[in-house]
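Researcher: I need the complex structure. Ligand is dTDP-4-keto-6-deoxyglucose. Inputs:
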Amino acid sequence: MGSRVHVVEGDITDAALVDRLVADADLVVHFAAESHNDNSLTDPWPFVHTNVIGTYTLLEAVRRHGTRFHHVSTDEVYGDLDLDDPVRFTEATAYNPSSPYSSTKGASDLLVRAWVRSFGIAATISNCSNNYGPRQHVEKFIPRQITNVLDGIRPKLYGDGLNVRDWIHVDDHNRAVWTIIERGHVGETYLIGADGEVDNKTVVRDLLELMGRDADDYDHVTDRAGHDRRYAIDPTRLRTELGWAPEYPSFREGLAATIEWYRDNEDWWRPQKDATEAKYAAVQSIVPR
Ligand SMILES: Cc1cn([C@H]2C[C@H](O)[C@@H](COP(=O)(O)OP(=O)(O)O[C@H]3O[C@H](C)C(=O)[C@H](O)[C@H]3O)O2)c(=O)[nH]c1=O
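Model: Output:
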């Protein structure tokens, strides 16, 4: 990696700011996004603003300055899969997003593709499955349940809890992004996944066991509107063409390490917790099993 890496905080729709930063960069890796589906259901506008207009703003700066660009996106652009169908998403799967969040990410991917084709910018795209690991906001599924248990609150499962997510440790995601930047072909898309399909109920039961609690000690709550049933990535292209492989040994080991991180870093997550639970309490209630 280069000697000067800047993680930039600020408004990516601020064209003057973005232009200044891009003018000074050899490479832009675009991780910035409004990323939480539940938030996109209560207020879609920040998602259109940041994910669509923000990406447009970056693309225009990259076009002006001829900067190499990598766009980080999600497998949610492909919609969802049935539980009983073994098919997985590939780079050829048609876009079919379900939520305001995933539709804005789909729109941002299409903008990148169009800027490659129409203006010849040097860009790659990656679409990754669900991340977990340290420093994830407590509104997300795994940190919410870990911090609930630490606070003596029962974990909360949406609907029947049988929805499947394909988990990858954030460090493996980052290594995959770097592999694509170094070895990927400009104009191409690569799917990132670590063969980590698990249903939500199993995640919660594993987590309770790892934290020394009764595995049945959780609640079902109101389901998410339009809740995608299953995500699953076929990472063959990334593995065979670019030689990437995940380094994290297994989801359960990664989960245990993540629990330890949240145990040891309450100072980091505590300021997020009350507002997050209040936000959920306003739209969710406990339902019978
Ligand atoms: C917060 C919460 C979630 N859930 C369920 C909903 C999902 O089936 C699963 C994971 O939910 P989460 O909101 O953490 O993540 P997804 O909606 O799958 O989306 C995530 O992974 C993709 C790839 C992105 O692109 C998103 O940016 C990222 O947020 O757990 C519950 O059952 N209870 C809860 O309290």
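Model: Summary of the prediction. The chain has a mean pLDDT of 96.
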